[in-house]
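Narrative progress, year one. The postdoctoral researcher (J.K.) led the effort to move from monomer predictions toward full complexes, under supervision of the PI. The following entry was the first complex the group processed end to end, covering 1388 residues in total.
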Amino acid sequence: MLITMQPDSSAGDHESVRMSLRMRGLECHSISSSGTAAIAVTAGKVTPELAAELGLLNGVAHVRSTARPYLLAQRAARPEGTIVNVSGVRIGGDEPVIMAGPCVVESLEATIAAAQAVRRAGATMLRGGAFKPRTSPYSFQGLGEEGLRILAVARDLTGLPVVTEVMEPEQVDVVAAYADMLQIGARNMANFPLLRRAAASGKPILLKRGFSATIEEWLMSAEYILAGGNDRVVLCERGIRAFDNSTRFTLDLNAVPLVRDLSHLPVIVDPSHGTGRRDLVERMSMAGIAAGAHGLILEVHPDPDSALCDSAQTITPATLASIVSRTHLLTAALNPLAEPMIPLAAD
Amino acid sequence: MLITMQPDSSAGDHESVRMSLRMRGLECHSISSSGTAAIAVTAGKVTPELAAELGLLNGVAHVRSTARPYLLAQRAARPEGTIVNVSGVRIGGDEPVIMAGPCVVESLEATIAAAQAVRRAGATMLRGGAFKPRTSPYSFQGLGEEGLRILAVARDLTGLPVVTEVMEPEQVDVVAAYADMLQIGARNMANFPLLRRAAASGKPILLKRGFSATIEEWLMSAEYILAGGNDRVVLCERGIRAFDNSTRFTLDLNAVPLVRDLSHLPVIVDPSHGTGRRDLVERMSMAGIAAGAHGLILEVHPDPDSALCDSAQTITPATLASIVSRTHLLTAALNPLAEPMIPLAAD
Amino acid sequence: MLITMQPDSSAGDHESVRMSLRMRGLECHSISSSGTAAIAVTAGKVTPELAAELGLLNGVAHVRSTARPYLLAQRAARPEGTIVNVSGVRIGGDEPVIMAGPCVVESLEATIAAAQAVRRAGATMLRGGAFKPRTSPYSFQGLGEEGLRILAVARDLTGLPVVTEVMEPEQVDVVAAYADMLQIGARNMANFPLLRRAAASGKPILLKRGFSATIEEWLMSAEYILAGGNDRVVLCERGIRAFDNSTRFTLDLNAVPLVRDLSHLPVIVDPSHGTGRRDLVERMSMAGIAAGAHGLILEVHPDPDSALCDSAQTITPATLASIVSRTHLLTAALNPLAEPMIPLAAD
Amino acid sequence: MLITMQPDSSAGDHESVRMSLRMRGLECHSISSSGTAAIAVTAGKVTPELAAELGLLNGVAHVRSTARPYLLAQRAARPEGTIVNVSGVRIGGDEPVIMAGPCVVESLEATIAAAQAVRRAGATMLRGGAFKPRTSPYSFQGLGEEGLRILAVARDLTGLPVVTEVMEPEQVDVVAAYADMLQIGARNMANFPLLRRAAASGKPILLKRGFSATIEEWLMSAEYILAGGNDRVVLCERGIRAFDNSTRFTLDLNAVPLVRDLSHLPVIVDPSHGTGRRDLVERMSMAGIAAGAHGLILEVHPDPDSALCDSAQTITPATLASIVSRTHLLTAALNPLAEPMIPLAAD
């Protein structure tokens, strides 16, 4: 059951609805922002009589039952879409956002050089790993907090907000202290304790799709964050595991228009991990934007062949610059017409 | 082993090379056209001495060994790319080609109406099924030769060349008698007797990727046709089978830049089958073009909800018109820059 | 709609039911044998009144509507199960059947030697390829009719019935002239013209599952054969395509109890193709039998390392002998208890 | 590089080897137990000269380079196999171990009743969830520590050692305080911080395979635990994600002989999650044992239809009793012959 509030409803109206629900023993969660609010009943039975009664309360626009298990993440909870503001960079609007940087923070000098190259190429956010999930216990696991400090310095010098991965609940506080946005990696998409703790930080969260997660499972993970009171979630498609090993993963661009239809959350794509091959990154970046993505996240290194990790999928700053300028051209060509391409689902 | 001829080499030069090979008991196949020719040694051992000797023959540009099992289909056999001419429509050049039409030929009137709508919307080829592979033996299996006659009438009235599926070797002659291009469906990609017979027809062939074929298997199926002396092959990505059933198939756009890199053959995409959902077709069409596809094939019906098959993935002529015009905008925005996006593989 | 006849109903009773249906413009197909018969209405609407009326006809046991698209292949059409007799070898009963032989027929001498080794090891049918579907047009494609003649000689010398693959409709007659059972390969599971022609031969048919076919698609392909009037169909699970390339394919044993539950047709497994690794064949053979398979089909060669194809997955006659004897031990241990392990679906 | 010690080597011999390595700046990890020890060089370059020198040290059996990234988990590190003792239950020997119990701990009474039913049916370990990873934030998430206390009571009453899931690093201590064995769930197979913390507890660990993890990734996760100084690891195959949704997951029994070949660690299978259908559980249990599994883990409930979670895949105690007795029959039939079925990899 989803209760949508009128645009001009007040905080008091919201509270009245919530109190009505609680008095009847129902549990509810809500998302709200300037403009829209929705309240989802997450446990307990809403009778038709109660639904009718709720519809008469001040400020209530609609009371509807819904077949989708992701109540707060569904498009109907905020039909106009969500824009996530990351230290001034707006994700979810008409202008795609490009995040770029090295796979892993290697040193202060290298990171500053990379960040400056990224900024010169026209990207607007910096990515880089301080805590790295590595398949082998014997591989370099990242610089940890030292890496976070380096990223913060790079941000201060370039003005680029930083997104970096957090791997376990106990790391959330320290990562949140340095980074502008927390990344939940693909392997942790269903790490529910981590999702809860990250939600509680109040930070914007980049939620990567697990490489064999269904669209519904992905949106349920977003729901964990929204139900935790944090609606600053950006989805990221980063490739699924399929049967052909000519690419490392298979970037699933079908997911882009699909989640734009199903959810109000912004969605970006990661062609670096999605293909694992640097020669495919530019084409798949264009394809991602044309599919409707709100941005890209890319692995870039001044000298890709010497990168400490993910070398095969890392592009040069020159390629990044080309992607940035083509993204603008492509957006300008398609944008005036973009809206009707994503019809709202009838549900 | 692949022997590439010089652009200005003569037919006699080619024949000399082939004779040299045959005299030594080696088997070879070749592709040629105005501009380029390549000869592949497909059985027998080429010693370094023989390779050196062949390199000295008149008209020979390169003699190289190759790790790829698809000899004639590989990019190096025709680095400048192949353009397939289908009754005047050129596939493989800068301008994407849009093929559209109903899933199945239902009647003469409906097909003429559909073809006219398709032409008005700006598409340049007509698709439609006369012989239909159906999962159930009890489903409508198409009108057969009567359907082919109807397609031919629709072509004559609209000027749109016709592509239609052929399902078994014995049907090749009759389909070739009516159609401008033969389609090999996804379920028949590895139907080798059919590939051989279709190759022998000399007709242009649209070779769909099997829904769980690797890129290499797909190119090996193209190799069957090329080795049969027919180089008029257009590849078509139409969706792979993955784990999430929120779409019917998963359109794999990674395949587009990948096969453009690996092969000289043109490649188009089929977002109708690739997604199975009409609300995703337009976005995925744009993504396909941005990924570098040489064209699209789309299921269109004046009244999609009443279509006899594939209704859920069929778009209206109005959506087709929108796709055609956006394809032009997108191509104009990206094309001047397109070349460097597909770097030639080092091999 | 499925009409099941009483065990003691007569041919005349069946004909009366079919005539009743045809007179009302309904289409029907049937399977019958000593003991059971079922008639499926495959086109047209059966009203509740008609259903009630049909239920009163002589010899009719049940009239039921069914949600399954495979009408004749479903378990309810022959609850006691089908036994397919291949020149005296019964497939589908309590005793598992072991088919074995080389991937491809190489020569008369080698084939006779292999067949004798197979018989000595205790297998009861001979497999071997005369027409081979090969990924590369340049690979050895089998000896063709000469290979069929060799297989027939090997059968005559050893008494082992022969199963061999048929790849295209035009080959059905010649293969049927020599072989005891026709194999439809995985790549041809959805080659509907081939299924129809093979059905018409009246021969027993081994229908391999396509490597990315769903269970339902597989049973629909069986339905093509049953609807063609041939109920001598044995299903064969031979591995699906999954994401891990540490095995060539992934033998899907879940399919075995599942199709035994859904269908009355016998099912065997092919651990050679299903794993692609000879060191896994014996264990997976045992697992297949324990899962409920009615038999195995195995690639065997006196000297596996010198086999012309599929060498990596080919076992020795000694391993085959071990598999045969363990199959008997395992069947003896589990069989008295086997029935309750496969409960009939409620539908 | 892997250094295997002689069976009669002393702790001092081991220490000498480790010191030799450290003095040269190389990093190493080791596993040891009565009978065997192996030392893996995990960082730094071993020259042929050093390898030869190490081979001469007291107690060293072999010094070999290895292509496998999982050094301590590979079969060569302990060729005779590992037996994990869980409070007296030995996993990895000739006798399969059956773990069974409810999906989730519902109440004290229900858990005691379930545990007693499980013991009566002949199983030797109790499973049950106190902390539950749930796709929805609104679903019941388990009783937490209260659930652990209940499991401990059930163990004390029945004598069955308890295995239960731990979901995050911070839970390891509390779960280890109550449980006999820690389960790492499929969604957490690549949760590396959790693996490290669980390893440090010293407790036996049941490591489920991620549902789209390759065999190599799975063994690398085991390597994290072994490198953390804990060799009490039991692997568990629980179904992979494939394309057919007629089962919830696809139990991949190929993994069983494969990991027995590649690794010395015991491996069990989970047919409940692996199929998601209770009517397939018994057959797939038999198949798992026949494939070589060292045990089974099964969801059982006195009244499956009323179970709070996973009802569709939960069997009755009567079915469990049938599985236990058939497991004995099957093991008795196959065991005397079992060894040669799993040949040691040549590596």
